[in-house]
Amino acid sequence: MATAPSIIRVVDLETTGETPSTHGVCEVGWQDVALGQDGRWELHGDGGSRLINPGRPIPPITQAIHHILDEQVADAPLWFDAARPVLDPYPRRLALAAHRADFEMKFCTPNMTHGADWICTWKCAMRLWPDSPSFSNQVLRYWRKPDGIDHERGLPAHRAFPDAYVTAFHLRDMLNEASVAQLLEWSNMPGLLPRVRWGPDRGKDWKEISQESLNGFLTDRDPDVRFTAETEIARRRGGGAVGRANLQGILL
Question: Which GO terms describe its molecular function (predicted)?
Answer without folding.
Answer: exonuclease activity; nucleic acid binding
